[in-house]
Design goal:
Helix content: 40-55%
CATH superfamily of the largest domain: P-loop containing nucleotide triphosphate hydrolases
Number of helices: 27
Distance between the termini: 72 Å
Oligomer: single chain
Number of strands: 17
Radius of gyration: 26 Å
Strand order of the largest sheet: 3-4-2-5-6-1-7
Number of domains: 4
Strand content: 5-15%
CATH class of the largest domain: Alpha Beta
Length: 624
């Protein structure tokens, strides 16, 4: 057993000063400062913060302010590379150890670590728990000291998460080996059940818990049926998109076919899927993150390992497997806080494909169906279908899935931008909820609908539910209409549903308010879509907007050239949000340039002269 060295740390910087010096930001994002303060008190932490919310900074800044080394567990090589590149671009001491390195490179980096030259070390869970690496950690602890363990993508710990990885379960072994080492678990997506499982599996001790809002207000959500015009629509949208785009497909074949078709239509697109060689995947990803191509067509194997901040469009060309995965994949748009669009296409063919994939969940040795996993997967599939066919605010549905209430009317999704007509279905809701109660809250939606519509199915008759007072009282509505009402009740959290693979409806306090006549129920009914006019709230004049856009494009070109000279992704030089601020404020001195968000000490020294000169040249040309 080992404990951390007790030598006092150096006099700490003011947190706001350190934030600006190391990362170039003037203020913390919501929740960050409290998390960092708890980390500096050596507490265990559980941080759930959506993509783009700044969760990486929550372990990176404390690591820079403490003595010793912070280990960062990360599941993908590309993710490690990306975060280490970004840290090193700010002249911060970070490195990674993984299978992409040669033996001599690994030994060189380990020597740097033992000399105390490194503050953050990224490592995969499989490598971290090998006997050789654990022996190396013992040496690090004795010579330099370990100060914290940060576990990124912590939802991988839980079998209830959308990306369960068994090797993550073993991370709790480090708690036994280094009992005083504080653990920080971080993830962008976790339901209440997943959060509880993370805490239990990792043995978190009285953790500081921060659950940020899952709302991403800069993202516009839209769902469309995949009809014959879907491909021409997609091409038009891609051509109009300023910035990078990701298109997700269900199968490798569709990835190949769609990327080839886009290339034939003159769009710069590349494929990415698990069937490609490591070299081809790596080359395509590198071209995408360095802006050599604008479009990546991929299976869900792509995206988790990049921090590309300027993705303006994410398209799901097929129905995703589950709502949690969709939220994370769509969330790769607009990580810089700038407006971005998330478009989902779906068709009946997708359902057949996904149902077939679920049926392939079998025991690897016996071939027997994994019944529990199949039940959970089918319930998750129904939830994403409910989202796709839902008529209420998309955010209401998404956030309710994560247990967060949202009032609706976000004004930034298709259902809110073009609201459907509302009808008063309070009486129907009372019938529906009364039927749930009469069935003793033991059945799912399909059974309740069958009872309401007077079905003579064997299950209804066998349970004696044809004798209930609610039997047949809903014959005046179709099954689809009752299903629309049921979805609305669930999405508005006026009704609950179990999530263990057996979706059973349960009444809650809001349900009883409806039954007592204390709450009315309005249901959005489907109507013909109309054109959506976004951007009508712009306050900037057309002339000023055009000028700022022209300078923004020049700064993007400069960023690309500087990034190529250093073999870096452009967003590591500066994010789009920083470039837009430069284009709007037009700083023409280094002192003014230093005030731009994202300009820290290192980037001011490295890039300040070039960007200020470009801005000055542009402003001078505008005067002539």
């Amino acid at each position: 057993m080992f404990s951390r060295p007790t030598a006092p740390p150096p006099e700490p910087l003011c947190l706001e000063t350190a934030l600006k010096q190391y990362f170039g930001y003037e203020t913390f994002r919501p929740g960050q400062q409290a998390i960092i303060e708890a980390a500096l008190e050596n507490r265990d932490l559980l941080v759930v913060m959506p993509t783009g919310g700044g969760k990486s900074l929550c372990f990176q800044l404390p690591a820079l302010l403490r003595s010793g080394i912070t280990l960062v567990v990360s599941p993908l090589i590309a993710l490690m590379q990306d975060q280490v590149d970004a840290l090193q671009a700010n002249d911060l001491a970070a490195t990674f150890l993984n299978s992409s390195l040669s033996g001599s490179e690994s030994r060189q980096r380990q020597a740097q670590i033992l000399r105390g030259e490194i503050k953050l070390v990224y490592v995969a869970p499989e490598r971290l728990l090998t006997p050789t690496f654990l022996a190396f950690l013992d040496q690090v602890q004795a010579q330099v000291g370990l100060c914290a363990l940060a576990i990124d993508e912590a939802h991988c710990v839980s079998e209830w998460g959308h990306d369960f990885r068994p090797e993550y379960r073993r991370l709790a072994e480090l708690r036994q080996r280094y009992p005083h080492l504080p653990l920080m678990a971080l993830t962008a997506t976790a339901t209440e059940r997943v959060r509880q499982d993370i805490g239990q599996q990792l043995g978190l001790q009285q953790p500081y818990i921060h659950i940020a809002s899952f709302n991403r207000p800069n993202l516009y959500y839209e769902v469309r049926p995949k009809h014959r015009q879907a491909y021409p629509e997609l091409v038009q949208m891609l051509r109009q998109t300023q910035g990078s785009s990701i298109i997700y497909c269900l199968s490798r074949r569709e990835v190949e076919d769609l990327s080839a078709r886009l290339q034939q239509d003159g769009l710069r697109a590349l494929p990415y899927h698990a069937g490609m060689s490591d070299g081809d995947r790596s080359r395509n990803q590198t071209q995408f993150i360095r802006d050599d191509v604008q479009i990546m067509v991929a299976t869900i194997a792509f995206g988790m390992g990049i921090n590309k901040s300027d993705v303006r469009l994410v398209v799901h060309y097929n129905l995703p497997r589950n709502l949690e995965g969709y939220y994370q994949e769509a969330g790769r748009a607009g990580r810089d806080g700038e407006p971005a669009t998330c478009l989902l296409y779906h068709s009946p063919k997708d359902l057949r494909t996904l149902d077939w994939l679920i049926a392939q969940k079998v025991h690897p040795e016996t071939g027997e169906p994994l019944a529990h996993e199949q039940r959970v997967a089918r319930q998750q599939l129904r939830q994403i279908l409910d989202y796709a066919e839902g008529t209420v605010c998309r955010r209401t549905i998404q956030l309710a899935y994560f247990g967060e209430a949202f009032a609706g009317n976000c004004a930034n999704c298709d259902n809110c931008a073009q609201p459907k007509p509302l009808e008063d279905w309070t009486v129907e809701a009372q019938k529906f909820l009364s039927c749930v109660a009469r069935c003793r809250e033991r059945f799912g939606m399909n059974h309740i609908i069958e009872v309401l519509r007077g079905s003579k199915s064997q299950k209804v008759l066998g349970k004696g539910h044809d004798k209930l007072s609610t039997y047949g009282i809903g014959r005046d509505r179709t099954a689809d209409q009752w299903r629309l009402l049921g979805r609305t009740l669930l999405h508005q959290r006026w009704l609950d549903e179990t999530t263990d693979g057996y979706p059973v409806l349960k009444l809650n306090a809001a349900s009883w308010n409806i039954l007592r006549g204390q709450q009315s129920v309005q249901v959005s009914v489907l109507s013909t879509p109309a054109a959506i006019d976004k951007g009508s709230d712009k306050r900037v004049s057309a002339a000023n907007q055009a000028e700022a856009e022209a300078l923004f494009q020049r700064l993007r070109s400069l960023r690309k050239r500087l990034a190529d000279e250093q073999s870096l992704p452009p967003y590591i030089v500066f994010a789009d949000s920083s470039l837009r601020q430069m284009a709007q404020q037009q700083p023409q001195t280094l002192a003014d340039f230093a005030q731009i968000s994202g300009v820290g000490r290192r980037k001011l020294e490295q890039y300040g002269d070039a960007f200020v000169a470009e801005i000055c040249n542009y402003c001078q040309a505008q005067k002539e």
